[in-house]
Write a structure and sequence with these properties.
heterodimer; A: two-stranded antiparallel sheet; B: mainly alpha; two-stranded antiparallel ribbon; globular
């Protein structure tokens, strides 16, 4: 339970800090400090439990089916890291309180710092590999937010992006690797994984998973070749650099390597991947650190180098090396954090981190100078300091581990070379900042900082000294506990002491010291102290990242134009083409065959009918772009042929409905034609290019193929015997059960009335949309003028509102149409009522009525009709829907499902037997809705001509703005 | 039948009724309109959650095997239309209700300004989605697709601007083409097997002769193409980024579930028909490869775009691709994680689209396309003719208080959405991806093409990285470029839905064990369709009584 508290407390504190007002500097710092100290206390309290190989655990089931639990587990090694994280946290909070400027919104800083602390504690205390990944990514994220804390600086933003890109990519690799481990071991629990080393190493996936985990670890610990993000991350506030980018987060990688050491180490592959990455980082880091001008840059590269040293130790497959690695993790954290703090103090007090400008600060800042000097000495591996001890162990291992002759020369050489550089850059750092001639062009004159800033660094330096002088007493027991939790009770023979006798490692230490000093003196003598890093400085990570960014965005933009078309034509081409392929592919194995139903003899008249219909259809498609009126008329012709076909094959209901639909559609389209923009001329030169011709030919072929394919499919289905039980069932039950003689209508209003309800809803929606669109419609400028035909005619076509009849040649049609009105209404009601028994129904009835209204509008003119006849189309639509819906819901009161028909046979005087059914109400609803929908569209169209023409200012096309937006790679 | 028995039909009737009543209200009755819309969605949420409960094992006494069948009109299964509530549909209904409610509340801030029948169309959109998830009949599925598409046409075209109209019409044309394919497919299937009932299909397909089977397959494939268009599968998805990007934020969010309707259909009908080994393999590999290409294309789109809403639209494509490719592996155990992914993806996308509506306002000049034009000059004409004119007055008052620290809130929500979209811990996007990868790895040795699982796993992780790269770039520009930004005024009604959706995601992550158990049960019943089939086909008493059995063959007679 205490364990969860350790991990949870920082997150709680983080949320609390986030809610503090931006100026609450002290409150935020106190909060963070209290949380860190509380964590530290809790960690300390748990020490007895982990001593002597004990393990504290706490498990909370999260997703047990997938082996994912919240499982906190603290053994000696985890304890050591938890201590490091919370102790460093407490010191950094103290330091940051004084480091951060009063203008900075500090609560945000502390909120993320605490969140990071929680995440880092989560990483070290997790007993489940997936859970480690969860917290791992959280550390990446909080690191991102902290690096970009001063987000107004472009460098900070870029550094943050760079670090998050690299570490998240690594984290995803780690996730994959961990998943593979889980798959092999059958559990993500650390307890199970650590004992399954032999299984893992023997598994065929071992190589792959090792590479993946190495990618995760090396990116996180800023190891070569992924080290470039760390120096960039130095744009973060210095407390962040001290805490995340030297003491803790970058240690997460090596922590995990050590954690998984028993399970994964011990193979040649491990050695080659881990040790060589470590060695490369060790050298590259140390070499680059020697030439940095930025104080924090020196420290960043030296961090890379020291982490390389740890990684190399871990890669050596030796238990002693492991001990040295863990020891050095602690040592590095102490001296590097205090160095960062010192660098931060210098920047804070003088206003610069440029070593070329800094100098001679030892006089004005003696305490800081002392702290920094001791810490740098520890970093260089000067005896009596902790860095010396672990570095000597490293030298010893470098000598022992090499098995072949080449290795036994290479490893010590690398170690020695790195040692030389490390002495050189430590010396250079201290010398240039504190001990040269005092500089006079500093932005601010340096002086000692407030006590709060110097105390944390000083405490760490004291720790360096204590460990360096009395290692066995101070860290001995803790290190032993930690090592036992990794290696088991059988620890290798090692001795923490300053004096091991006059050994080769000691000699190497002194050679390194001497060599480093010589190298620095030579640099000084040649005046090359501030020269850029030879060779490596040409690889500018920031620049390369920017270039990569641009390349990726540009490349993606190009590719995305390949993948996605913005043209409707190409999209439809893909749809039709793929559907064609799919339809044809289905016949791959059997081939297409017609059914065995006998074909009726060919009737010449019917054939002629269809030839005409087909010609109309093709003509309509061909003319659609060039002569819309002709196309529309031919469309009507094709529709008419369809109607006749239905009638020919004894489907009066279909024929009736089809003809009504045709009439209404064609007329409404006709009314809309007037507002369409100017058509394309048939002989437009753009149509003549070979490309356009080719495209048309392609589309034509595809259309023919798809059409023929559909016809073939239809033919194949229609020539096969009827297999469905449905028609039989419908025919049997139509009259008997549903009480209607007209089966088609019974299907529509009873058997499948639900579909009808849905379809009338669609009709209603479409009408509403047409209305909504046309209400905002602005005609194209060229179609605003009164049409030519109207201009040529002296007599006004529309009827004056108060005149009973129009003058001129429209008088006769007007009389006829007005006579037709009531007749049409009567017919429509007749169709509605008889629908259940004979051809008709609400849909046809509604369309007939709507056609009558349309005709009135066309002949009388909008104003004339609307001054006499008030149709509220939306109300009709709503009432229709209510009618149909009520018919459905009524069934509930009879205890039946929705849309069940309720019928009653009544005997009324005079009229006789009447069959009343809720389906009639349903059909009435359809009737009203259809009228409402059609009239709504009609009204919307009709009112276009009443509107005052208005020219809208051409608004800047958003689309084009977006396109340029996309083409530009933003850095 | 008791009241509870009618529950399955309510998700269709309630929004329809609400939409109808709203048509009768004048546009000035904003308060009443709002309460009707809210009430309707609250009822739907309650109904959906009740149905969800009824399908769980805890309520095994209500429905056998957690499958409820509701015969519309009382006609028995293969003859009439039935609504079927099983775990999958109940889950989808709940998802629709949660997302729609959030979207509705969000749109109340100012997005529902009069000018167009927003509320009616929105209710009908919800009705179409609910119906599509409920119906057990292929043609009825078509009808509900039409309803939801028709409503979406109107919603996409809300607002002004050339770009919006062009893309909107593009969207309409593509979907009409897809609907046409849908119809051809259903017609062929009906013509060969003689049934429209999904449960009835299976037994009949198995009995087909090879030549008939080929004909049926042609229908099924064509139908499948229609579904893939809706699911946003490459190369049929060019319409998607544009359509989502030009739609106003709440509308795009309301569409979050639309591509999933396509995936749902693939899942529902695909599993019903995958009994046939050979067909299942072909279907699988097609789904796998198209899914993979879709995923890659979506990722490339995410990298290429600089426009947040378009980027979210591409992430919709990525999620579709991921689901299709995973389903295409042909491993049954992958279904539960895919469903988990589906749920989180819908919630995430909705939240993210809603968020874009607010982040757009941080630009100094709000984009022109988000203004709805209220056309005053037309009012007189329309008043006279019975069409309620828009009320341009009385809508400008700001609802709710502006939230302090608006940017902080937006930032936090943005981060949550990024983590959700990219599947990074600790939000449920990670749980979804983790479970998916874990299952994929577990089954790699058994999957037909051995490398398929590996490739998919790499693709899944890589899309996460791509998401991070693309979203940090856009996020930095949105929140961290100090110039050209202003802090927007947010309404509580806008902020709360986003926070609510993210909260639902968090709850999902915390309760992933029970959720996953439910989804596993869902997957099992999908892969063992026998129960579904027998329940649907046998459970309905023929309340009318077939004339043949009840009174002999007297009437209409056999053909």
């Amino acid at each position: 339970m205490l364990l969860t508290l350790i991990a949870a407390l920082p997150f709680v504190g983080s949320i609390a800090a986030a809610f503090l007002p931006a100026g609450a500097r002290n409150a935020a710092a106190w909060l963070a400090g209290v949380v860190a100290v509380a964590c530290l206390a809790l960690v300390a309290l748990l020490y007895p439990g982990v001593q002597a190989g004990g393990v504290e655990t706490f498990r909370f089931e999260w997703l047990p089916q997938f082996g994912l639990d919240l499982y906190f587990r603290m053994d000696g090694f985890a304890w050591l890291f938890a201590l490091l994280v919370s102790l460093m946290g407490a010191l950094v909070v103290l330091y940051a309180r004084y480091y951060m400027s009063p203008e900075d919104p500090v609560p945000r800083f502390f909120a993320f710092l605490l969140a990071f602390m929680g995440a880092m504690l989560g990483v070290v205390l997790s007993g489940n590999l997936i859970q480690i990944v969860v917290f791992w990514e959280l550390t990446s994220f909080t690191s991102f937010m902290l690096i970009a804390y001063w987000y107004h600086l472009p460098d900070a933003r870029r550094a943050a992006r760079m670090s998050v890109t690299v570490t998240v990519a690594g984290g995803l690799c780690l996730l994959m690797g961990v998943l593979m481990i889980g798959e092999i071991v059958g559990s993500y629990d650390l307890d199970d994984v650590l004992v399954a080393g032999d299984v893992l190493r023997a598994h065929p996936w071992y190589g792959a998973l090792l590479i993946l985990i190495a990618l995760g670890v090396l990116t996180k610990s800023a190891q070569f070749p992924f080290h470039f993000w760390l120096p960039q991350a130095m744009t973060a506030p210095t407390p962040v650099s001290a805490y995340l980018h030297s003491a803790t987060m970058v240690k997460a990688g090596v922590f995990l390597l050590a954690r998984l050491w028993p399970a994964l180490a011990g193979t040649n592959l491990w050695f080659w991947i881990i040790a060589s990455a470590g060695a490369a980082s060790l050298l590259v880091g140390a070499f680059s650190a020697t030439f940095q001008r930025d104080t924090k840059g020196v420290l960043a590269y030296s961090t890379i180098s020291h982490l390389g040293l740890i990684t190399m130790l871990l890669g050596m497959n030796s238990e002693l090396a492991l001990v040295a690695a863990v020891f050095h993790m602690m040592n590095h954290a102490t001296f590097k954090a205090s160095l960062f703090m010192a660098a931060g103090i210098v920047q804070h007090e003088t206003g610069t981190r440029d070593m070329k400008r800094l100098g001679g600060l030892a006089r004005s800042m003696p305490i800081t100078a002392a702290v920094a000097t001791v810490a740098a000495a520890a970093m260089a591996g000067v005896p009596l300091l902790n860095g010396f001890l672990s570095k000597e162990m490293f030298f010893a291992e470098a000598i022992v581990v090499g098995r072949s002759l080449g290795m036994s020369i290479t490893l010590p050489t690398i170690a020695l070379l790195a040692g030389v550089f490390s002495v050189a850059y430590s010396l250079r750092f201290v010398h240039q900042v504190f001990f040269t001639e005092p500089s006079h062009d500093l932005p601010k004159p340096g002086h000692e900082p407030t006590r709060g800033m110097i105390v944390p660094g000083a405490l760490l330096v004291v720790a360096c000294l204590l460990v360096g002088v009395l290692p066995a007493v101070t860290v001995g027991p803790v290190l032993e506990t930690a090592m036992m939790s990794i290696l088991g009770p059988e620890l290798p023979e090692y001795r923490l002491a300053i004096w091991h006798g006059f050994t080769l490692p000691l000699v190497m230490s002194f050679i390194a010291l001497a060599g480093g000093i010589t190298f620095y003196v030579l640099l000084l003598a040649r005046g090359a102290v501030m020269s850029p890093t030879p060779i490596l400085s040409r690889l500018n990570a920031a620049r390369m990242f920017d270039v990569a960014n641009v390349v990726v965005v540009r490349g993606a933009a190009k590719l995305s134009h390949l993948f996605f078309t913005r043209r409707l034509q190409s999209q439809l081409l893909a749809i039709v083409g793929i559907a064609l392929v799919a339809g044809v592919a289905a016949f791959g194995s059997t081939g297409w065959s017609a059914g065995e139903n006998p074909l009726t003899p060919i009737d010449p008249l019917f054939t002629l009918l269809w030839v005409v219909g087909a010609a109309c259809a093709v003509g309509a498609a061909q003319q659609a772009k060039f002569h819309r009126l002709a196309a529309l008329i031919m469309l009507g012709g094709a529709g008419l042929v369809t109607c006749l076909t239905f009638a020919w094959f004894s489907a009066p209901d279909l024929a009736l409905t089809q003809i009504a639909v045709e009439v209404v559609t064609v007329v409404l389209l006709l009314l809309g034609l007037r507002w369409l923009p100017r058509r394309i001329a048939f002989d437009d030169p753009r149509r003549k290019t070979p490309r356009a011709r080719g495209r048309r030919a392609r589309d034509f072929l595809l259309a023919v193929a798809a059409g023929c394919g559909t016809a073939a499919l239809a033919f194949a289905v229609l020539t096969r015997p009827q297999v469905s039980d449905l028609p039989g069932y419908f025919l049997r039950n139509s009259l008997e059960v549903a009480g209607g003689r007209n089966v088609v209508n019974v299907i529509l209003v009873d058997f499948r009335s639900f579909d009808t309800l849905g379809e009338i809803t669609v009709v209603a929606i479409v009408a509403l949309i047409v209305y909504a669109l046309l209400r905002r419609f602005r005609p194209a400028p060229e179609s605003i003028d009164v049409p030519k035909a109207q201009r040529a005619d002296p007599a006004p076509l529309t009827t004056a509102v108060d005149a009973p009849l129009p003058r001129g040649y429209m008088r006769l049609p007007a009389v006829l149409v007005r006579l037709i009105g009531p007749m049409a209404g009567l017919v429509s009601v007749y169709f509605l009522l008889r629908g259940h028994q004979a051809p008709g129904g609400g849909f046809v009835g509604g369309l007939v009525m709507a056609s009558a209204v349309i005709v009135q509008y066309m002949v009388g003119g909008t104003m004339w009709v609307e001054s006499r006849l008030r149709i509220h189309p939306q109300v009709w639509i709503a009432l229709g829907m209510i009618g149909a819906g009520t018919a459905g819901i009524a069934a509930w009161f009879a205890g039946k499902p929705f849309l069940s028909a309720l019928a009653a046979d009544l005997h009324l005087p005079l009229i006789g037997d009447v069959h009343l059914s809720t389906v009639l109400l349903f059909d009435l609803g359809v009737y009203m809705l259809v009228i409402g929908a059609v009239v709504l569209m009609l009204v919307a169209l009709a009112h276009q001509s009443l509107r005052s023409p208005r020219r809208v200012p051409v608004e800047p096309s958003r689309e084009s703005a977006e396109e340029t937006d996309e083409a530009e790679a933003v850095v | 039948m008791s009241v509870l028995d009618h529950l399955p039909v309510l998700p269709i009737i309630v929004p329809l009724a609400a939409a109808t009543v709203m048509l009768l209200l004048s546009e000035s009755r904003r308060g009443l309109r709002t309460s009707i819309a809210l009430g309707s969605l609250l009822v739907q949420l309650a109904v959906a959650l009740t149905l969800l409960y009824q399908t769980t094992d805890a309520a095994a006494h209500i429905w056998d095997d957690g499958i409820g069948v509701y015969p519309i009109g009382g006609w028995p299964a293969p003859f009439g239309i039935v609504l079927v509530v099983d775990r999958l549909s109940a889950m989808m209904l709940s998802l629709v209700a949660i997302v729609s409610l959030s979207v509705l509340v969000y749109s109340l801030a100012h997005w529902d300004k009069p000018g167009q029948p927003f509320h009616s169309l929105f209710q009908l959109l919800v009705m179409g989605q609910n119906g599509a998830f409920l119906t057990g009949d292929l043609f009825s599925l078509f009808v509900f697709f039409e309803i939801l598409l028709a409503a979406s046409y109107g919603l996409v075209l809300r607002g002004t601007g050339m770009g919006r109209v062009r893309t909107g019409l593009h969207y309409i044309a593509v979907n009409l083409a897809a609907s046409f394919l849908f119809l051809i497919g259903v017609a062929l299937m009906y013509g060969t097997v003689g049934t429209l009932n999904m449960a009835d299909l299976l037994g009949r397909v198995a009995a087909l002769e090879p030549d008939e089977r080929a004909l049926f397959d042609a229908g099924a494939w064509i139908l499948g193409i229609a579904f893939l268009v809706k699911a946003g599968s490459w190369p049929l998805n060019s319409w998607l980024p544009g359509a989502y990007a030009v739609s106003m934020a709440p509308i795009a969010a309301g569409f979050a579930i639309m591509t999933k309707v396509g995936v749902y259909a693939v899942l529902r009908i695909g599993t019903l028909m995958s009994e046939d080994e050979a067909a299942a393999t072909i279907l699988g590999s097609i789904l796998y490869y198209t899914g993979l290409v879709t995923l890659v294309s979506g990722s490339i789109g995410m990298l290429a775009t600089q426009h947040l809403k378009r980027l979210v639209a591409y992430s919709v494509i990525v999620s579709s691709g991921l689901m299709l490719a995973s389903l295409g592996l042909g491993v049954e155990s992958v279904t539960a994680p895919v469903l988990f992914y589906l749920v989180t993806s819908v919630l995430t996308t909705a939240a993210f689209f809603l968020l874009t509506g607010m982040t757009d306002r941080t630009r100094l000049q709000a984009p022109v396309t988000d203004h709805i034009e209220t056309d005053r000059e037309m009012m007189p004409d329309y008043m006279a003719f019975g069409i309620r004119a828009p009320d341009p007055y009385g809508t400008e008052e700001e609802v709710g208080a502006a939230i302090p620290a608006a940017m902080a809130f937006l930032g936090l929500m943005f981060v949550c959405c990024v983590l959700l979209v990219t599947g990074l811990p600790p939000l449920p996007g990670f749980v979804a991806k983790f479970t998916l990868l874990s299952v994929v790895l577990e089954t790699t040795p058994t999957v037909g093409a051995r490398n398929a699982g590996w490739v998919l796993a790499v693709a899944v992780l890589a899309t996460g990285l791509v998401g991070i790269i693309a979203l940090t770039r856009i996020g930095m520009r949105l929140f961290w470029s100090s110039t050209e930004r202003r802090t927007p005024r947010l309404h509580v009604t806008e902020a709360a839905p986003v926070a609510f959706l993210v909260l639902v995601c968090l709850v999902l992550a915390a309760a992933s064990a029970p959720v996953m158990r439910f989804l596993e049960a869902t997957a099992n019943s999908l892969h063992d369709p026998d129960t579904y089939i027998t329940t649907v086909l046998s459970s309905i008493p023929d309340t009318h009584g077939d004339a043949e059995s009840s009174s002999g063959d007297l009437g209409g007679g056999a053909p």
